[in-house]
């Protein structure tokens, strides 16, 4: 396990925008690490997203908008700040990378249309200049009415750019290198004091598996590629394992 890799660390004061138009000021450390895939440079972040500079694309999966509202509807009390925190983190990444498009690799939504989706649409309207490309996941049950409400620029089962295929779950029949989501990968760190489970990116010879963007998801440490490089991250660092 290598814990001494170099990372580009940036701590930037960023202004966030939210639905009530108030300015929220916050600090968030963004740690980045560049990796080469298919002769392309991609930037891993410790904020659960990937940036592709050539395409000016911010790439992430498994935002699961509507999950907290779905739980509340079914009698499980959850604070509404969970989704708000995810979107504020996304706003910080927008300010930092200045992307021209999002590639959302599945599970943008969790359970169809609900009040959380309304708030997401209000948040999204701030970024009308950013192209939203959705690769549908198993939770993205989107009617024509909901598709219009979300104002998606594209919606498909898969997306291909150059020699890279974006698909929610890994497709063994696809010979191209795939960037995927779905699994919510995690890595177990064994310390003398306790075991710690952390989110991670996983890179194999034919796949880059993204962490779930939402922090309101579990971490799967079992259903992962058998061979690969694990990029485990904390609030402060990215470690290659």
TrEMBL record:
One Pfam family this sequence matches: Metallophos
Signal peptide as annotated in the record: none
InterPro entries assigned to the protein according to its UniProt record, in alphabetical order: Calcineurin-like_PHP, Metallo-depent_PP-like, PdeM-like
Ranges of residues in domain Calcineurin-like phosphoesterase: 57-146
Single GO MF descriptor: hydrolase activity
Listed Gene3D superfamilies: 3.60.21.10
Domain of life: Bacteria
Keywords of this entry: Ligase
Record-given protein name: Phosphoesterase
Organism of this sequence: Chryseobacterium balustinum
């Amino acid at each position: 396990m290598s814990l001494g890799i170099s990372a580009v660390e940036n701590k930037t004061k960023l202004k966030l925008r939210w639905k009530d138009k108030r300015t929220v000021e916050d600090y968030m450390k963004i740690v980045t690490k560049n990796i080469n895939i298919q002769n392309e440079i991609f930037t891993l972040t410790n904020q659960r997203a990937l940036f592709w500079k050539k395409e000016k694309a911010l790439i992430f999966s498994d935002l699961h908008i509507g999950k907290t509202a779905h739980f509340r509807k079914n009698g499980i009390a959850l604070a509404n700040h969970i989704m708000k925190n995810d979107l504020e983190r996304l706003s910080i990444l927008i300010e930092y990378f200045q992307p021209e498009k999002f590639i959302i690799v599945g599970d943008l939504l969790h359970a169809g249309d609900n009040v959380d989706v309304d708030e997401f649409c209000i948040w999204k309207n701030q970024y009308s200049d950013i192209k939203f490309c959705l690769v549908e996941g198993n939770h993205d049950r989107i009617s024509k009415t909901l598709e219009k409400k979300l104002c998606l620029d594209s919606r498909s089962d898969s997306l291909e750019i150059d020699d890279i295929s974006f698909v929610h779950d890994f497709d063994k029949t696809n010979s191209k290198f795939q960037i995927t989501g779905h699994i919510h990968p995690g890595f177990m760190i064994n310390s003398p004091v306790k075991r710690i489970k952390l989110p991670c990116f996983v890179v194999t010879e034919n796949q880059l598996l993204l962490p779930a963007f939402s922090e309101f998801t579990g971490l799967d440490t079992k259903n992962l590629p058998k061979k690969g490089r694990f990029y485990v991250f904390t609030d402060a660092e990215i470690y290659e394992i």
